[in-house]
C-alpha cells in the first residue's frame, strides 16, 4: 500500500515539475550570473520550515557588472537576513525590497496570488559590483509556515536552474530534517537519488547530494501526518523590543477519527449555471455529485443553482438521507446552463436556508467564476450585503472555476466570512485536491471554538471570531502582544454538545528575530481587516446605483366590496365574467405585443448587420429607428412599463417588462412575490413621450398598513360583504324566479288572447 502511494506521489511531483517558480539569481542588465554551487539546509518542525541557503555565482564575462539578488519565496515566508560576499571577502548586507510593504493597507497586495509564480513572491536586493571572472557567495535564511490539509504537508525549494543556464552545478546538496508532534509517514520527493531515513526519535532525514548536475525542476517534498490526538503549537517573535511583538497559535485536530468525533453540519452548495459556465458545466456537476455522496448521516444540506434566476433544490435544508441524496443527484444532472449571472441574489438566497439550530456548524460552498452580469454587480456591495445577511455565522468557501475568474470578489467573500478561496484550475491533480478540500471542511470536529488568553496582554487578534475546526484543517490564530511573559491559555470547543478543553503553555518572548514569518501572516489579516472597516462599520443591504431612480410605493391593497350577491340575478352570471376578462387582459396583451415587435426588430437588425445587439440602451433604439426596423417610436401599454433584458437577446422571453413581465412569467397573475419583485427591482429602459430614453431603477417601497386597513382586511370586510350580499342574493333569487315565472307565463297569455280574438269573443 505504501509503495502504491509513493508511486502516485512521485508521478504527481514529476507532473508538477513543469510549474517551476523562478529560481534564485544574481541579476544584472544583460541577464543572470550562472550558479556554480547550491547548498540548502532545512529544518522542519511542527509544519514550520527554517531554510538556510548558500549559493555561489560566477561572472564569466571580461568586465565587471552591477548585480542584485532576486529570490522567489512563498507568500507565507519572511526573510530575516541575507548577505553577499565577493571574491575579496567583502560582505554586503541590506534589507530585501519586497514586492509589497507590510504597512500597505491594500488587501489585494496581500491576498492576490501571482498565478504565474504559483503563489510565490519575488524579493530583490540592492546591487553590488561583481568583478570580471570573480565569484559571489549568497547566504539566505528564512522561515515559513508550510501548508497543511487533510494531514498532508509540502515543502518547495526554488531550484529550477536549467531554465536559466546551461552550465552544470559543481555541487548540489540538500539536507532536510522533519520533526512533528504527530507521527510522520510517506515522506516522498519529486527527485530521484534522494535518501530518506527515520531515527529512533521519529525524526526523518532527507538528503540529496550530486556533483555536475543541472536541475530541471524545483525540489519538492511531501509528507503525511497521522495521529489520534490533536497538536498545538505556539510561537512568538519580537524583532524590536520597543514595539509590540507577534504571536501565532496553530491547532490541528487528529487525523485518525471515527463517526462519533464528527459534529453535526449544515452545508449549502451555491452553483453557477449561467452561460459563462458552459464549458465547466460537466466539471461542476461531477464535483457536486461527489460532495453530495460524501455527506455525513447527521448532515443537512441545500442546493442553490443560479443564473439570472435562482433555483432551489428544497425550500428548507434537507436531511442527508439516501433518498434525498438520490433526488439531489437527479436535480444536479438536469441542470442546464443559460442566461446571465446574479451572484448577489444567489448568495442571499443561500444564506436564508441556514437556521439557528444549536450544536451545528454552517458552511456555504460557492462554485462559480465570479463574473457578475445582472443585479447588484459592485464587489463592495456584494461583500457588504453578504456579511449583513450572514446572521448565522456560516463560513463561505469559494471555488473559482473557469478561465476568466473574478479573483478579487471570491477572495473577499471567503476572507470576510471566515472561509477560503481556491482556484482548482491552477492546481496539479485537480480532482484529488478538490476531494481533499471537501473532506477537510465537511467533517467538523470542534464547534463554538473560543480562546482564553489568560494573563497575556494581547491585541488585534485574528480571526476575531474563531471558525469551527474540521477534520483535516488547521486553525491559525495570529495577534500582537505588548508584554513578555509566560501565560497559561486554554482553547475550548464543543462536539455534539460536549465541551472539550485544551491547555496551552505560551511564552511571549522579550526579543527575538526567529519566526519572523508570523509578522507576515499577521500583516496580511490586519490589512484585510482595515479594508473591511473602511467599507462601513455597520454593513447594510444596498441597492445598485443607476442613472435615475423611480420609486413605486406599494402597500397592501384594501379589500374591495365584492358584491357577489348580484349573482342572485341570473342574467349577471353570463354578462360579468366576459367583461372582467376583457378588462384584465388588455394591458398585458398589449405589452406582450410590444415585446414581440421589439424582439422582431432586433432579430432583423442582427441578421442584416455584423455587430449584434446584446444590450437594450439608447444606441440600440436609435439604430432600430434609423434602420427602419422600428417604423415609429414605441407606445407603451402603460406609462409605468419599462423594458429590460434578462440575458443576450436570443429569445423573445429575454425581454421583460417591469410591470407585466413577459410571456413566460406574467407578473400580474404570478403568486410568487419574490419572482415578481425580482423583475420589478431591476434596471430597465424607460420610454418617455415616444422619444426620450432613460436607464431607470425601479424601486419598491412597502408602506405599513394603518390599523383601520388591517382590521378591514382581516375580518371587517368579510362581515360587511355578508351583510350586503346575503340579502342582495336572496332578493336577486326572488326577483329572478318571479321574472322567470312571467317569462314562462307570457306565451300562454299570448296564445289565450289570440284564441279569443279568432273566436270573435270580446276581451
What's the CATH class label of the largest domain? Mainly Beta
Structural class: alpha+beta
Separation of the first and last Cα atoms? 121 Å
Spatial sequence of strands, sheet with the most strands: 7-6-9-4-3-12-15-14
- Major sheet attributes: 8 strands, mixed
What's the alpha carbon Rg, rounded to whole Å?
A: 36 Å
Number of helices: 13
Any idea what the shape is?
elongated
What's the architecture of the largest domain in CATH terms? Sandwich
Binned strand content? 25-35%
What is this entry, summarized?
With 763 residues, the chain is α+β, with helices and mostly antiparallel strands. Helices cover 28% and strands 33% of the residues. The radius of gyration is 36 Å and the shape is elongated.
Give structural notes.
The protein is an alpha+beta fold and 763 residues long. The protein folds into four domains: 2-226, Immunoglobulin-like (Sandwich), CATH 2.60.40; 236-255 and 446-534, Immunoglobulin-like; 263-442, 3-Layer(aba) Sandwich (Rossmann fold); 550-702, no CATH class. The protein contains 13 helices and 36 strands. Helix 3 (281-293) runs antiparallel to helix 4, helix 5 runs parallel beside helix 6 and helix 6 (379-389) runs parallel beside helix 7 (407-415). The longest helix has 52 residues, at 707-758. The protein is elongated and about 155 Å long.
Amino acid at each position: 500500500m505504501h509503495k502504491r502511494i509513493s508511486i502516485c506521489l512521485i508521478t504527481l511531483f514529476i507532473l508538477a515539475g513543469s510549474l517551476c517558480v523562478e529560481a534564485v539569481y544574481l541579476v544584472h542588465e544583460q541577464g543572470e550570473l550562472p550558479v556554480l554551487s547550491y547548498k540548502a539546509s532545512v529544518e522542519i518542525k511542527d509544519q514550520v520550515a527554517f531554510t538556510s541557503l548558500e549559493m555561489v555565482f560566477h561572472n564569466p564575462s571580461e568586465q565587471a557588472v552591477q548585480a542584485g539578488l532576486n529570490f522567489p519565496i512563498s507568500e507565507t515566508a519572511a526573510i530575516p537576513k541575507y548577505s553577499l560576499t565577493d571574491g575579496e571577502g567583502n560582505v554586503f548586507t541590506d534589507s530585501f525590497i519586497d514586492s509589497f510593504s507590510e504597512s500597505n493597507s491594500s488587501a489585494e497586495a496581500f491576498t492576490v496570488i501571482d498565478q504565474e509564480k504559483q503563489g510565490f513572491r519575488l524579493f530583490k536586493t540592492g546591487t553590488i559590483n561583481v568583478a570580471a571572472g570573480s565569484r559571489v557567495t549568497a547566504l539566505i535564511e528564512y522561515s515559513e509556515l508550510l501548508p497543511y490539509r487533510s494531514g498532508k504537508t509540502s515543502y518547495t525549494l526554488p531550484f529550477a536552474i536549467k531554465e536559466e543556464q546551461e552550465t552544470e552545478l559543481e555541487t548540489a546538496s540538500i539536507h532536510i530534517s522533519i520533526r512533528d508532534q504527530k507521527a510522520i509517514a510517506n515522506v516522498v520527493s519529486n527527485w530521484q537519488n534522494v535518501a530518506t531515513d527515520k531515527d529512533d526519535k521519529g525524526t526523518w532525514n532527507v538528503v540529496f547530494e550530486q556533483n555536475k548536475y543541472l536541475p530541471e525542476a524545483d525540489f519538492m517534498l511531501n509528507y503525511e501526518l497521522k495521529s489520534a490526538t490533536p497538536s498545538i503549537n505556539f510561537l512568538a517573535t519580537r524583532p524590536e523590543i520597543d514595539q509590540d511583538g507577534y504571536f501565532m497559535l496553530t491547532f490541528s485536530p487528529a487525523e485518525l477519527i471515527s463517526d462519533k468525533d464528527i459534529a453535526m453540519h449544515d452545508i449549502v452548495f451555491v452553483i453557477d449555471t449561467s452561460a459563462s459556465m458552459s464549458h465547466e458545466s460537466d466539471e461542476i456537476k461531477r464535483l457536486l455529485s461527489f460532495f453530495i455522496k460524501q455527506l455525513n448521516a447527521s448532515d443537512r444540506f441545500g442546493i442553490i443553482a443560479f443564473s439570472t434566476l435562482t433555483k432551489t433544490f428544497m425550500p428548507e435544508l434537507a436531511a442527508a438521507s439516501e433518498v434525498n441524496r438520490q433526488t439531489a443527484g437527479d436535480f444536479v444532472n438536469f441542470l442546464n446552463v443559460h442566461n446571465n449571472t446574479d451572484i448577489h441574489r444567489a448568495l442571499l438566497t443561500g444564506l436564508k436556508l441556514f437556521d439557528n439550530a444549536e450544536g451545528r456548524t454552517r458552511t456555504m460552498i460557492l462554485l462559480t467564476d465570479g463574473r457578475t452580469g445582472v443585479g447588484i454587480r459592485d464587489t463592495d456591495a456584494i461583500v457588504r450585503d453578504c456579511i449583513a445577511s450572514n446572521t448565522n455565522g456560516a463560513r463561505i468557501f469559494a471555488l473559482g472555476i473557469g478561465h476568466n475568474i473574478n479573483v478579487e470578489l471570491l477572495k473577499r467573500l471567503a476572507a470576510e466570512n471566515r472561509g477560503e478561496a481556491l482556484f482548482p484550475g491552477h492546481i496539479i491533480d485537480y480532482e484529488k485536491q478538490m476531494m481533499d478540500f471537501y473532506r477537510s471542511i465537511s467533517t467538523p470536529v470542534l464547534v463554538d471554538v473560543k480562546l482564553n488568553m489568560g494573563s497575556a496582554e494581547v491585541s488585534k487578534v485574528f480571526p476575531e471570531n474563531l471558525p469551527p475546526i474540521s477534520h483535516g484543517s488547521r486553525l491559525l490564530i495570529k495577534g500582537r502582544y505588548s508584554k513578555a511573559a509566560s501565560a497559561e491559555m486554554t482553547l475550548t470547543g464543543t462536539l455534539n454538545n460536549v465541551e472539550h478543553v485544551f491547555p496551552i503553555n505560551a511564552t511571549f518572548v522579550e526579543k527575538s528575530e526567529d519566526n519572523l514569518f508570523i509578522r507576515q501572516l499577521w500583516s496580511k489579516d490586519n490589512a484585510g481587516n482595515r479594508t473591511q472597516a473602511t467599507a462601513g462599520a455597520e454593513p447594510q443591504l444596498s441597492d445598485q446605483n443607476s442613472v435615475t431612480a423611480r420609486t413605486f410605493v406599494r402597500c397592501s391593497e384594501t379589500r374591495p366590496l365584492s358584491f357577489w350577491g348580484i349573482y342572485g340575478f341570473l342574467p349577471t352570471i353570463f354578462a360579468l365574467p366576459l367583461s372582467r376578462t376583457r378588462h384584465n387582459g388588455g394591458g398585458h396583451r398589449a405589452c406582450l405585443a410590444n415585446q414581440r415587435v421589439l424582439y422582431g426588430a432586433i432579430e432583423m437588425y442582427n441578421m442584416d448587420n455584423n455587430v449584434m445587439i446584446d444590450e437594450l440602451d439608447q444606441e440600440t433604439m436609435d439604430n432600430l429607428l434609423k434602420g427602419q426596423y422600428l417604423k415609429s417610436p414605441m407606445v407603451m401599454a402603460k406609462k409605468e412599463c419599462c423594458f429590460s433584458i434578462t440575458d443576450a437577446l436570443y429569445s423573445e422571453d429575454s425581454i421583460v417588462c417591469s410591470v407585466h413581465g413577459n410571456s413566460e412569467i406574467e407578473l400580474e397573475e404570478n403568486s410568487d412575490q419574490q419572482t415578481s419583485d425580482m423583475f420589478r427591482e431591476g434596471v430597465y429602459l424607460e420610454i418617455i413621450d415616444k422619444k426620450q430614453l432613460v436607464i431607470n431603477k425601479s424601486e419598491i417601497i412597502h408602506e405599513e398598513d394603518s390599523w383601520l386597513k388591517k382590521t378591514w382586511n382581516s375580518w371587517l370586510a368579510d362581515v360587511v360583504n355578508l351583510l350586503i350580499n346575503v340579502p342582495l342574493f336572496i332578493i336577486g333569487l326572488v326577483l329572478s324566479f318571479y321574472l322567470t315565472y312571467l317569462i314562462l307565463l307570457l306565451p300562454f297569455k299570448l296564445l289565450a288572447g289570440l284564441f279569443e280574438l279568432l273566436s270573435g269573443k270580446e276581451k
